[in-house]
């Protein structure tokens, strides 16, 4: 009698290896949406904290350094969790840590300390790092390797659903509750009045994050009771004992396709984070208006991102992913430079349109870089998640550029990042079959 955990015969037409993987896939989609909510609810905080604590753009950009820096720090531990236990264990661990980080926003709002908020963001992002390191390869192993890139793009298509929710929550619960007082007016206020205003503003920051913690608890419970075949999810004990990190790292670095994929992912995430983090500043510098009105354009960006994810997944049925990656990266550079040279309403829409280019990039680079890694996929996945460090480093550079030259000129930073992604796309067209 055939063991129920034995996978059925694979075929390129079958979407999943195991019959009950469809339910697991749907549950994982909620995780893709969840980290989208967190990431894009966090983007406006750079502007928010800059105003609340009256600090420079460079200082407030430490929000992204804490957030994406956590991704860098926790990716390797996540890979060990996945290798020693299972992808499901990694997902549950990541969700649990993210819940703790989101709940930490409450004591942070009480303390009214910028450093406490950065610590809460770090813990939240640490959990999301483990979650993302586990969920991405989990989705890829649910079906035939030949359709892994398309399956991951489909799952990632629900990430912008979360990003739109995140921006919506920031635009409705945080930004409208910022006091309109200028930095000069705040400086002249009595300490008691300033503390009262700051407490109200930070309470508005705290509310959506604590609410998200309770949603993540529900997702955690559903995934905990999710049944996954052991042979699809758990590593063989002998395989675990044979883990040699140094040897694995050597094999990964020896593969140009993977090595340059990590570099490309670094600059892709950098371009994405820079574009969205400073959209509000660009719109205000170009068109004027309040933070809340400028955030409408960030919402438009993410709607385009959402629609484009599904469009790009469909186009992959006709064009090689690497070809699409090259074209869209070059277009991203062109749109950034246009926004720099033409700082008017058309420049604003150029910034908004960059999201169409970004929609394809993360899952495509991810799947190209991991293609053919076999047993090294778990640690290869960790390296690509560590590349999210680009979202920590480059916003600091763009923030310093804004402080010195303004938000308009600063978009030369993501323009340069897109060129690196384009180079990887061209390399992949010539050297891979993806």
From TrEMBL:
Top-level division of the source organism's lineage: Bacteria
Keyword Coiled coil: no
Membrane topology annotation: Multi-pass membrane protein
Record-linked Pfam families: MFS_1
Keyword Membrane: yes
InterPro entries: Lfuc_symporter_FucP (IPR005275), MFS (IPR011701), MFS_trans_sf (IPR036259), MFS_TsgA-like (IPR050375)
Membrane-crossing residue ranges in chain numbering: 21-41, 61-82, 89-108, 114-131, 152-175, 206-226, 260-278, 298-315, 322-341, 347-370, 382-402, 408-427
Keyword vocabulary terms for this entry: Cell membrane, Membrane, Transmembrane, Transmembrane helix
Compartment(s) where it occurs, according to its Swiss-Prot or TrEMBL record: Cell inner membrane
NCBIfam families: fucP (TIGR00885)
Official protein name in the record: L-fucose:H+ symporter permease
Organism: Marinomonas foliarum
């Amino acid at each position: 009698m055939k063991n129920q955990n034995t996978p059925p015969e694979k075929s390129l037409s079958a979407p999943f290896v195991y019959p009950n993987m469809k339910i697991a896939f749907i549950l994982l989609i909620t995780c893709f949406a969840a980290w989208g909510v967190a990431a894009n609810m966090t983007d406006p905080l750079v502007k928010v904290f800059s105003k609340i604590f009256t600090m420079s753009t460079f200082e407030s950009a430490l929000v992204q350094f804490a957030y994406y820096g956590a991704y860098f720090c926790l990716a390797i531990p996540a890979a060990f969790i996945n290798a020693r236990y299972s992808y499901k264990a990694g997902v549950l661990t990541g969700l649990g840590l993210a819940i703790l980080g989101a709940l930490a926003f409450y004591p942070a709002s009480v303390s009214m300390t910028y450093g406490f908020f950065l610590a809460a963001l770090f813990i939240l992002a640490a959990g999301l790092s483990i979650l993302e390191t586990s969920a991405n390869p989990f989705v890829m192993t649910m079906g035939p390797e030949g359709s892994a890139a398309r399956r991951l793009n489909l799952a990632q298509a629900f990430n912008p659903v979360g990003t739109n929710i995140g921006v919506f929550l920031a635009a409705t619960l945080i930004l409208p509750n910022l006091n309109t007082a200028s930095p000069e007016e705040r400086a002249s206020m009595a300490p008691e009045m300033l503390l009262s205003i700051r407490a109200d503003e930070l309470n508005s920051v705290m509310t959506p994050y604590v609410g998200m913690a309770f949603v993540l608890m529900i997702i955690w419970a559903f995934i905990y009771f999710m049944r996954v075949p052991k042979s699809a999810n758990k590593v063989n004990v002998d395989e675990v004992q044979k883990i040699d990190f140094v040897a694995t790292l050597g094999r990964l670095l020896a593969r140009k396709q993977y090595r340059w994929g990590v570099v490309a992912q670094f600059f892709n995430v950098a371009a994405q984070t820079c574009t969205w983090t400073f959209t509000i500043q660009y719109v205000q510098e170009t068109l004027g208006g309040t933070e809340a009105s400028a955030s409408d354009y960030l919402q438009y960006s993410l709607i385009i991102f959402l629609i484009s994810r599904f469009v790009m997944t469909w186009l992959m049925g006709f064009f090689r992913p690497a070809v699409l990656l090259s074209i869209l990266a070059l277009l991203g550079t062109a749109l950034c430079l246009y926004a720099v040279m033409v700082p008017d309403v058309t420049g604003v829409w150029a910034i908004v349109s960059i999201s169409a280019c970004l929609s394809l990039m993360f899952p495509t680079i991810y799947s190209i870089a991991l293609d053919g890694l076999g047993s090294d996929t778990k640690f290869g996945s960790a390296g690509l998640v560590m590349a999210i460090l680009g979202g920590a480093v480059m916003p600091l550079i763009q923030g310093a550029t804004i402080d010195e030259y303004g938000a308009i000129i600063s978009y030369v930073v993501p323009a340069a990042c897109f060129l690196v992604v384009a180079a990887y796309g061209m390399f992949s067209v010539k050297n891979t079959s993806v």
